[in-house]
Amino acid sequence: MAQQFLDMPNKDGYFGEYGGQIIPPELKAIMDDINASYDKVRETAAFQDELQELYADYVGRPSPIYFARRLSEKVGGAKIFFKREDLNHTGAHKINHCLGEALLAKYMGKTKVLAETGAGQHGVALAAACALVGIDCEIHMGEIDIAKEHPNVTRMKVLGCKLVPVTRGTKTLKDAVDSAFEEYVKDPVNFFYAIGSVVGPHPFPRMVRDFQSIVGIEAREQFQAKQGCLPDYLMACVGGGSNAIGLFTAFLDDENVQMIGVEPAGKGLDTPDHAATLTLGTKGGLHGFECYILQNSEGEPLPVYSIASGLDYPGVGPQHCYLKDIERVQYETIDDKECLEAFMTLSRLEGIIPALESAHAVAAAMKLAQTLPADKNILVNLSGRGDKDIDFVAEYLSL
Questions:
Q1: Does 116 qualify as catalytic in the annotation?
Q2: What is the CATH number of the domain that holds 14?
Q3: What is the pTM of this model?
Q4: Which end of the chain has fewer CB atoms within 10 angstroms, the N or the C?
Q5: Quick check: is 94 catalytic?
């Protein structure tokens, strides 16, 4: 299964029914050039050696696995472990693919890298990677997210990127994607669009998956070395889905390892204020690819919401759609209240402040652990740290 999945997508960029290139012919030629360049460079020792050296000496990989003893004792039942992607340079898993994309842009001779960001983690990571390789960087970010994620906004500016506020629509992630893509198509020959998740037209879901797969490769080896077994459950939050695919891919052949992706239920699945795409969405087209989408009867994406800015996206990576359909991964939801409770519980029991995105997966792990015996293990991808969220949470909870 793992090799079969790694062999995907097919030549047209599809994972089963999902993915592809729903784009104008002139953009298809550009995307095919990116795909060909990626195929060429990824096989070279120079590219791989430089990437692995940066993962070790710049990012700080491998990120450790941590047993949350006090949290596990408090919750009861199964033991909860964390893959500490929050300890990476720039504070999240995003740096894994940003370095790969920045190096590819440099190899292709691009003059500027464009991207969207929601919570700001992708923006910060890309700004850092572009500073490192010496390429101009421009980040588009919704006005609401700029207000919520002020620490990351400051970090991006310090790192030298141009920040473009997006004031249209819901002023959040989906609109930031629209804005960044419109800028990109002005000069796709010289610009490089570094997509921030396993979404968008082929080859981006494939490339981001490949760069993020280091998370699961490390975790599989580390867990066996420390615990003498594989985890019984894997958990990761899902917006676009890069951190979850990064963890899940290395375990796909392990039939006894159950995988759970956690979507944002926001203010409730019975309200319009959620982003539970795989739970309540239907198949459609968005931002150049086919996936499950929260959409209206005319096929237009619905406004979505999550307390976690990095999860409020109306679509999801094509890999997740495929894995849902073949029932290899189960997808569940966590609402804002549960997310905030997990955020505060982990902070005060373990001294680890998680990103609000990651706190969705922590909350789901806490709920699951209570239903399992003590000899079971849950490994959560703690995909980011919550420095960016502390001011917002403190005000929201009146701390």
A1: yes
A2: 3.40.50.1100
A3: 0.95
A4: C
A5: yes
